[in-house]
Amino acid sequence: MAFAKSLLIVSLVVAVVSTALAGKCPKPSSRLVLHGIGENAHKLRPTVDLFNKLLGGDDNGSNPGPLKEGRRSINWDAGIVPFNFPGDFFAKVVTRGLTVSNKDGKFAVSNPPVDANKTLVDDKFDSINKRAAEDFLTFSPERLFSPVKQNKVTIKFSVPAKHDAALVKGFGAVFVDVDKKLQTKAVYYDYNGCKIAEEYVDKQRNGLSFLGVIFDSPIIARVDIYLGAAPIGGYKRGDFVVMDDFLYSEPQAIPHYY
After folding, report:
1. In the chain, where are the structural domains located?
2. Which residues of 74-101 are buried (b: 16+ CB within 10 A; e: fewer)?
3. Strand, helix or coil for residue 147
4. Which partner from 12, 95, 126, 217 sits 20 to 30 angstroms from 233, CA to CA?
């Protein structure tokens, strides 16, 4: 398997449980962590394909859940996805079982296809931050996702079409224009709020990065993602990072013992 001019790192890690939360946290569990970088979408594609293979099964699209097997994905590219993005769009409008949130609830999806005059009205967030947009690529053309006024986003899962809180065993995403090490990261939590993984995204200036984590069973209830050093809205300079595709296992109903 060739990965020319790209980097792929797969590691198996034993999760460390905080002693402060030992009474509530699960026993240590192994996890698989997948990192990848690429100068463009073609170079990153093998990493994303591998993560999908590790998640297993087919893409279940917007079918009602929970399904026993398979996975879900969000690429932001359909014309139905609004520029001013409501955090529950992929839970209530398109049933993929995923919600995004943060303190101010302002999110955007770049490059809506056309305005009333059938012309493009935004390109990679150039209507929000023209300077930053010059460095952004897409993995799946032609739209990207980002919080606007904050550089943090919280992801939670639900049973598709039923809206009950759910767990997944794996979640990964494509990150755009990560300039610095040890800055952009994803923190994974279980249903009790225990931190079960924390991983930094590998840098690829003016390119694309991937980070994904998979556990043996559905345990992930929430993922907090920290993007660069500053949000794209309100700042002209900084390490701005946005996102493209989200990939995750089929959301499963939370067991009664929780």
Report:
1. 6-253
2. bbbbeeebebebebbbbbeebbbbbbbb
3. strand
4. 95
- Residue 220 in contact with residue 168, Cβ under 8 Å? yes
Please give the structure tokens belonging to residue 73: 């994905």
pLDDT at 15 over 60: no
Lowest mean pLDDT among 90-94, 112-116, 121-125, 213-217: 112-116
- Residue 59, CB-side half-sphere exposure with 13 Å CA sphere: 13
Tokens of 95: 């049933």
Is residue 118 pLDDT above 80, yes or no? no
Q: What are the respective helix, strand and coil percentages of the chain, to the nearest 5?
A: 10, 35, 55
Beta strands in 79-157 (DSSP E): 84-85, 98-101, 107-109, 145-147, 152-157
Query: Is residue 116 within 8 Å of residue 126, measured between CB atoms?
Result: no
Show the CA angle centred on residue 75, arms to residues 192 and 132, nearest 5°: 95
